[in-house]
Amino acid sequence: MSASGLRLVRDAAALFLGEVLGKVAGFVAFAYLARTLTPAVYGGVELAVALSMFFSLVVDFGFGPIGAREIARDRRRAAALAAQIPAARLLLSVLAVAGMTATAAALGQPAETTRLVALFAVAIVGTAWASRWLFQGLDMMLWASLPQALRMVVFAVAVVWLVDGDAELWRVGVAEIAAAALMALYFVGVQQALVAPVRLDFDRAALRALFAEAAPVGASQLVWAGNQYLPTVLIAVLVGGVEVAWYGSAHRVVMALGTFVWLYHFNLFPSLVRAREAGGDALGDLLERSFRVAAWAGVAGGLAATLYAGPICRAAYGADFADAALPFAVIAWAMPVTLASGHARFSLLAAGLQRYELRAQIASALLTLGLGLLLVPLYGARGAACGMLAGSIVAWLVAQHFATRHVGPVPFLGALLRPALAAAAAAAVWALLSPVSAWAAGGVALAVYLLGALLLEPALLRDLRALRAEAAAGAGAGASGGAHP
Fold it and tell me: Most exposed residue of 226, 285, 448, 485, measured as fewest CB within 10 angstroms of its CB?
């Protein structure tokens, strides 16, 4: 294997292991909280996390994808962007902290929940220094793999150490602040040592240009976050009580697993940029190979989550959270939808057409809101889950339309036919065997699906090798160009 290929394997493994460690630590933290707090109080934690995720994206404001794209095009811009983007984010963090605190007060939640949200608001200042985009653009994936794991390990240790009941709910916020601060210190230290001196550039002209470029992406991210976390807020306001815990816990598992969907496109994005710059059939060929791989992997994830929804929720949060299984089984199908739709959405970003990706997210959020207002009062967490899945599908349809029209052919439903057939066969096997043993039936069903992948899609392994070679070419370019701009 070439040096660039070895580097690719090392970096991909580091990213994967870093995410796994972070998710395991997060699982430990929230499983502990679910067992230590009563379900109604635990729902306050999920509300705080939902608001934190939204306002963290206010601070990010789309600068990450823009920064990674520009550095992938011209590495000499890395030092300037590393000074401008944190400066812009720090300005936004002032607004985000104030906005999140005011939102908590306006929602009419219990005092302990409002206090917890305020502490989480302080922690999002650390988002200003989250520079994974910098390492992504420089193909320094090894260094991008560690910070989230570090943050979640610190959070988990602090939660287990500090929280021992409902009366100590506020200490969850203290743990979040400590974890965010250490993550920010990591980014600052690695940038100083390996990329460029840490500094802030508040030049007005540069910041105006940066905001103008990032605004469509930032708005799209905010709409996406609203689409993801609005159901939690709707349940808290319209229904309240344990329904927040049922939906929030199910959504948390899906979002944790969905990180690997994001990780896939995080790695693919520089290749999309390079393929577009190369011209010809390079972009179309890359999308076709990637979509086949994503289709089979995504449907496998949705199928496994559906077959084992009950055991997963009970194992994650305890027997009291068995009612989260149905919302989880519904939301889980947002993972394959998002994995597939990412090809259209990230193609638009790679082409600088982020305004169309924003339109897709707006359409999605409007449907999620409308269905949430209609279904949440009637069905609680189950209604919210249906609204979220429907919104994810609409985002895909709209992004697909604009990508096909303005970028070029992007694979669509045709590539999903074979995975769907294999999933149908697996579901039939499960239905036959589940009366005997649900666990064994799930294992046999997944084996049938894997066999279907090997028989129906013989090009799948070749696609995987080609994707690895493409990423290795980018890693090789990064190595020849050096880490320092």
Answer: 285
